[in-house]
Fold this sequence. Notes:
Shape: elongated
GO molecular function: metal ion binding; phosphonoacetaldehyde hydrolase activity
Oligomer: single chain
Distance between the termini: 13 Å
Low-confidence stretches: none
InterPro entries: HAD-like_sf (IPR036412), HAD_sf (IPR023214)
Protein name: Phosphonoacetaldehyde hydrolase
Number of helices: 4
EC number: 3.11.1.1
Number of domains: 1
Number of strands: 2
Structural class: mainly alpha
Helix content: 40-55%
Organism: Serratia rubidaea (Serratia marinorubra)
Amino acid sequence: MDDAVPGIAEGLNAGMWSVGLALSGNEFGAQWQEYQRMDDAEVARRRTRATEKLYAAGAHYVIDTLAELPGVVAAINRRLAAGERP
């Protein structure tokens, strides 16, 4: 898991499932204090931009925050059990 394009590339190069972090990551481009002052439209614009960049870099999944990671790990485990590999 990483919050920037180079980290996604590193995960892919290592043969790992790569998970991008959009809302609370570098690609979102704001500190917590800035985020708290943003209106919904700006948050949505930045989230969309970050998500697109991370998927374009090859991320298998993109989540907003770490709180969503357990669900992604469960999905990856199901895929592994079915014989899928990254």
